[in-house]
Amino acid sequence: MQYDKYVVGYERLSKDDPDSTESSSILYQKMIIADYVKKHPELSDYEYTERWDDGYSGTNLERPGIQEVLRLVKENKVYCIVVKDLSRFSRDYIDIQKYLERIFPTLDVRFISIADKFDSNEYIGNPLEMAMKFKSILADYYCKDTSDKIINQLSAKKAQGKFIAGSAPFGYSKSKEDKYKLVIEPREAEVVRRIFDLALNGLNINQIARQLNDEGVPTPREFEQMKRKINREAPGGRAFWYARSVHSILTNEAYIGTMTYNKYRQRSVGSKRKVLIPSSEWERIYNNHEPIISKEDFEEVQKRYTNNTKTVSKGSRDKYKESYPLIGKLYCGGCRRALSRNRFVPDDMPLVCNTRSVTDQFDCYEGDSTMREIEEVVLYQIRKHIKEVLALDLLTGQEMMNYPDQINRNKEEISEAHEHLASCDERLQELLVQKHRDRVTTVDFLERKTLLDVERKSLLDLIHEKEQEIHELKQALSNAHIFIWKNTIRLLWQH
């Protein structure tokens, strides 16, 4: 058994697969792959493991199971990946080509697609090469064609005023008679009206959030949990109203009966990311459903909100558009929620806790440090840690050079032990024959058998010990980048 690398079986099934039947279930794929590996000695000699994704599309590689497989590949722990058919790995031709033709061969990873009779060891120069490319292109085309058809169908439904989003806006629910129609949710609608009343009375979004929290008004998430009868507490205690959630309600045209759609466009050609377009360019269907707020009140709130909202000049925004790596990684010591930077004071980028502005329940962070100050502290700790690592004598180059020789010596000892083990088995077999033919006494038989058993156990223990040593030495070699990294950092540190 090879311990240094794995043979990985990967299975995937999407709810939208045209072949999502029992014959293509995850369990069936597992059986097919396991049986294939078992019947091929060059595969069964390696330790076998499995990863799978159930309910995930094959249009991209953003799947937890395949990401775990690729992580093992990056760590040089994979000898071979086995799938039932190529589409289980991916339906995207670009991904297939990238991994099968460049990444996997470079990392010496074998790839097998059972149904396609494809083995990367026999790929180059094989007539099957063109057929595999053609199949992956067809799979890619199928996904894109299906995606286009779905998008066109959804666009047609939107144009008819049908609500097709996953969940209704707060204050509404989907009609039980018609899932594409919005109906008012009375208790939630009262909260919406309360928020608009507070805005009309001159409160800003932070003040409104604080007022709702002081009154113990349930948040949209809490209302949803009550409807689903879910008892799940938010991190740090109960959920709170925040300025952003109040803002989203005060600016949502759904509350005057207007349905808006086509609010986003593709960031760039080929990009999967979308950006919000100006509201003047949105598609609208007026009087689509029953309103909660009058049009006059809504417009008045928009006027007040626009006039009272702090803004930062475009020049200032552009000046501070750089990326801050610690954003999303810093948390308040009081409420345990993520800290953010104050966009309205760009010169110092002070960190703020949004909970502090809407409730006094926690001893929240007071915002007396800037992003750059925190970054300096983190960098100091990183440098300190690197110095400590460099001070450790983890692995020397000379030791690494001796590892291959040690591995070979261990292999020789294992081979000799197997020869002795075979000799023991022959002697034991001969002893059994002699005992059967009454050529040795019972006492003599037991004494000699005991000695042979002790010798066999000693040899088996030695084999196991040497195999373990080989495994550890190979692991050390596979992690040799640690040694290179350590010395590279040392050189950089000195200069």
Brief characterization of the structure:
The protein has helices at 26-39, 41-44, 64-74, 86-89, 93-106, 128-159, 186-200, 205-214, 220-228, 243-250, 295-308, 314-319, 371-390, 397-436, 442-478, 481-494, and strands spanning 2-13, 46-54, 78-83, 110-113, 118-119, 172-174, 182-184, 259-261, 264-266, 274-276, 283-285, 340-341, 351-352.
Features:
Hect, E3 ligase catalytic domain fold, Rossmann fold, 4 domains, disordered C terminus, 495 residues, five-stranded mixed sheet, two-stranded antiparallel sheet, 16 helices, alpha/beta
Write a structural description.
With 495 residues, this protein is of the alpha/beta class. It is 51% helix and 11% strand. It is built from 16 helices and 13 strands. It has helices at 26-39, 41-44, 64-74, 86-89, 93-106, 128-159, 186-200, 205-214, 220-228, 243-250, 295-308, 314-319, 371-390, 397-436, 442-478, 481-494, and strands at residues 2-13, 46-54, 78-83, 110-113, 118-119, 172-174, 182-184, 259-261, 264-266, 274-276, 283-285, 340-341, 351-352. Strand 6 (172-174) and strand 7 form a beta hairpin. The radius of gyration is 33 Å and the shape is elongated. The two termini are 47 Å apart.
Layout of helices and strands:
Elements: E1 2-13, H1 26-39, H2 41-44, E2 46-54, H3 64-74, E3 78-83, H4 86-89, H5 93-106, E4 110-113, E5 118-119, H6 128-159, E6 172-174, E7 182-184, H7 186-200, H8 205-214, H9 220-228, H10 243-250, E8 259-261, E9 264-266, E10 274-276, E11 283-285, H11 295-308, H12 314-319, E12 340-341, E13 351-352, H13 371-390, H14 397-436, H15 442-478, H16 481-494
Parallel strand pairs: 1-2, 1-3, 3-4
Antiparallel strand pairs: 4-5, 6-7, 8-11, 9-10, 12-13
Helix pairs in contact: 8-10, 14-15
